[in-house]
Amino acid sequence: MNASGPKERATFSIAADVKSKLEAVVPKNERSRFVEKAIDQALRDVAIRNLQKTLDEIRRPATAEESGSEFLRRKRMEWDGRPIDVLEGRHE
User: Fold this and answer.
1) What is the Cα–Cα distance from 9 to 46, expressed in whole angstroms?
2) What's residue 17's pLDDT?
3) Which residue intervals of 1-92 are DSSP H helices?
4) Which phi and psi (to 5°) does residue 53 adopt?
5) How far apart are CA 70 and CA 73, in angstroms?
6) Distance of alpha carbon 39 from alpha carbon 14, whole angstroms
7) Rounded CA gap, 47 and 79, in Å?
8) Environment class of 73 (CB within 10 Å of its CB; exposed 0-12, middle 13-18, buried 19+)
């Protein structure tokens, strides 16, 4: 077990040319870690794109009385149902 938790085997296929490049560049004993980091980064990129899409689709209120921070705080409360003092760390 390491800092990221226990390891599990995964079986998937990759293109032969990608496999050849991986084997040419990354030493055998470092490939699992290399692939794990690449997958983790790709998943983070997907999450960021999804968040950007969500933020782009949010309709702003008609009035300009609410600041951007206040608007996002209100939307966050609507999404997860937690009161503002919990979101701000003042209460659990």
Assistant:
1) 23
2) 98
3) 16-25, 31-57, 68-80, 84-87
4) -65, -45
5) 5
6) 13
7) 17
8) middle
17-64 tens-digit pLDDT: 999 999 999 999 999 999 999 999 999 999 998 888 887 777 766 666
The three-state secondary structure class of 2 is strand
Q: What is the torsional sign of CA 55, 58, 73, 61?
A: positive
Whole-prediction pTM: 0.62
SS3 5: strand
Taking phi over 0 as left and psi of -120 to 50 as alpha, with beta for the rest, 10 belongs to beta
Tokens of 8: 């599990």
The encoded tokens of residue 75 equal 């939307």
**CA atoms within 13 A of residue 55's CA, in its CB half-sphere:** 11
Q: Are 87 and 73 in contact (CB under 8 A)?
A: yes
Residue in the block written with tokens 């794109």 = 49
